[in-house]
Amino acid sequence: MRLRIFLEPQQGATYEDQFAVARAAEDLGFDALFRSDHYLAMGDHVSGLPGPTDAWITLAGLARDTSRIRLGTLMTAATFRHPGPLAISVAQVDRMSGGRVEFGFGAGWFEQEHAVYGIPFPDSGRERFDRYEEQLDIITGLWATPAGDTFRYEGRHYRLAEGPALPKPQQGPHPPVLIGGTGPRRTPRLAARFADEYNVPFSSLEETEAAFGRTADAVRASGRGAPMVYSAAQVLCAGRDEAEVAKRAARIGREVSELRRNGLAGSPDEIVDRIGRFGEAGAERMYLQVLDMSDLDQLELVASLVAPQLD
Known about the structure:
Keywords: Flavoprotein, FMN, Monooxygenase, Oxidoreductase. The protein is of the alpha/beta class. It is 43% helix and 19% strand. Helix 1 packs parallel to helix 11, helix 6 packs across helix 7 and helix 10 packs across helix 11 (296-306).
């Protein structure tokens, strides 16, 4: 079981805040640092100050300011960017990092942030998903086109004239692609076709296991030979004792009892047991959602008392 740190910077964080967590995560031996791709804070308990940071600009900075830890998004929103320029951005950051980028990619869903920043938001979920599927086809197609060849695409929503399909990422044929969600039909099919990793975010153990099963069925039905990595994301609230757990829960505006039901909360031993259950369901990686970026002591606690029990 590999542990990865997952941040929500739209809730209020500077680049320096994110770098501090990335540096601590790298020093403490965590496998990766991922961040969300949002432009608007969520919930009434945060102001979002000093304002949002762009996911791929941030990862470009971290690519140069770190040396080992892998870097990625859960999930880049297809609605935010055109597929051609996005393929260029991700390939460039992959090269800047020395081949440490992972590309989590989703259809986009938070309508309000699109309205606030003037980003078009397709009216129907079907259209968003149709556009998302075409973007997956285009981005992976651009990366997979051999150097010296050209790429052309004719879809319903996107058309690319014949072009050089450059630059190439450092990782070949491309950075790992992550697809997530619990959709019962299209998500498993797209994961089987495009993804190296399938992620189930913030779901119960039972829902996660069922989603893994649907995707495993789609992988088998597709006939693909490459293995699929299965992972889950859960909010983290760890403490050496109950008072420390309660303090951390209060700082992120949550109740301990609710976090125990819907996340990884409690003592190190409780969290080890909970992660172990996700492992039994098929998860090979766990993304720990860290909502208080100033609390680096929590990372040290997990690295020293949780991670060694998962080896």
